[in-house]
Amino acid sequence: MDTSVSLRQDLPHLVTALPGPKARAIVDRDSAVLSPSNTRSYPLVIAKGEGSIVEDVDGNRFLDLNAGIAVCSTGHSHPQVVAAIREQAGKFLHMSGTDFYYENIVTLGEKLSDLVTLGDKSREKRRVYYGNSGAEAVEAALKMARYHSGRDKFIAFFGAFHGRTMGALSLTGSKSVQKKGFAPLLGGVTHIPYAYCYRCPYGKRVESCNVECVKVLEDQLFKTTVPAEEVAAIFVEAVQGEGGYVVPPQKFIAELQEVAHRHGILVVFDEVQSGMGRTGKMFGHQHFGVDPDIITLAKGIASGMPLCATVAKASYMQWKPGAHASTFGGNPVSVAAALTTIQLLEQELVDNAARIGGVMKERMLTWPSRFPIVGDVRGLGLMLGFEIVRDQATKEKAPDLRDLIVELGFQKGILVLGAGSNSVRLAPPLVLTADQADFALDTLEECLAEICAQ
User: Fold this and answer.
1) Which of 156, 219, 289, 307 counts the highest number of beta carbons within 10 A?
2) 121: confidence class by pLDDT, cuts 50, 70, 90
3) Are 183 and 268 in the same domain?
């Protein structure tokens, strides 16, 4: 590594072989006591972080393109977020918003309602339910949809990830290992293909397709196995996250909402990963010009503090006291972090995600012509993915090569993760700079070139 570059505090600098001795010792301790269900792609043991840089226990510095799985939206330990946490912690840590009142949960609820309605007073007012994680936000949406509609069935998509609690897991259609051994799950969930245009299950091209991935509802599903009048809600990710960072075409979202509303079915937009500025807009669904019935938020909402929100049209959130609640949902310290996070997002970070992400994507779009193992490049803002294949013509998936890219990246000082079976995702903090973006892409191109040369 060039010393003049590596000594910059905003870029990686490796001082030991990886993992270093301290990291190796902690990994060994971890394996002896923590749940083996945790998935770890490489032995990173973080000691501290600032912005888009994390440092491990051995003093190695990495450029983080994961943001704690799209969580640290304002970067690691943003000073304004830390100050807000400290200030609130000095007042009170907990009181339980399910049984008592405190002001900041009201302030955040008002802000989220305004953000979702884009400040348009003609749109229906929103109400907010708080929990602690994306899965909890989805569970709340599931229960609310049943409670409001009196219906018991749901539609979800292959490739979707909505969480691992039993209800959310029932909606998840990502990997069989996530469901193996946990049956029976929530009944009444049917999965259909997502608008994964690179691998269209109907063999169509987006330019000329008839949105078969939505038409299947009325043309087949509702006529044969799932009565439309029994479906409470359709759960859809504005951009599929764990499924491979798949961006659907505009007509998919428009047609889906039209079909759903024609049959009185709610549309729940899972924005756990695509929300809070990640796509270059505050919420991913805003790219498609829709007015969602319910959205679920978590991950980037509080810069790393545990918080989720289920935001629904007020007419749908009419359940009675005690119908649903969470002791820790809306924790005041997490809410303080969220309010400051949103302020930073609105001031500059959503725009930064759109600008830096756009430049990155433009460069990445050249990769299929330069590297024969790159089959597809896609994404919005700083939610970017590229798919690794054995052959561009056959589109044969190459998960082993994808995993090698992830490992090589780690050895070169950048942190990336896989998504789907054979894609690499880039979800850096939204504070990522142009220099850091260039370094990341330079390094990924080195990885791709090395693998192609083998």
Assistant:
1) 307
2) confident
3) yes
Find the CATH number of the domain harbouring 110: 3.40.640.10
Q: Are residues 360 and 415 in the same domain?
A: yes
**Do residue 303 and residue 183 come from a single domain?**
yes
**pLDDT beyond 90 at 453:** yes
CATH code for position 11: 3.90.1150.10
Mean pLDDT of 344-359: 98
**pLDDT tens-digit series, residues 192-229:** 999 999 999 999 999 889 999 999 999 999 999 999 99
Instruction: Print the SS3 string covering the chain.
Output: CCHHHHCCCCCCECCCCCCCHHHHHHHHHHHHHCCCCCCCCCCCCEEEEEECEEEECCCCEEEECCHHHHCCCCCECCHHHHHHHHHHHCCCCCCCCCCCCCHHHHHHHHHHHHHHCCCCCCCCCEEEEEECCHHHHHHHHHHHHHHHHCCCEEEEECCCCCCCCHHHHHHCCCCHHHCCCCCCCCCCEEEECCCCHHHCCCCCCCCCCCCHHHHHHHHHHHHHCCCHHHEEEEEEECCECCCCCECCCHHHHHHHHHHHHHCCCEEEEECCCCCCCCCCCCCHHHHHCCCCCEEEECHHHHECECCEEEEEECCCCCCCCCCCCCCCCCCHHHHHHHHHHHHHHHHHHHHHHHHHHHHHHHHHCCHHHHCCCEEEEEEECCEEEEEEEEECCCCEECHHHHHHHHHHHHHCCEECEEECCCEEEECCCCCCCHHHHHHHHHHHHHHHHHHHHC
When divided into structural domains, the chain yields a total of: 2
Say what the pTM is.
0.95
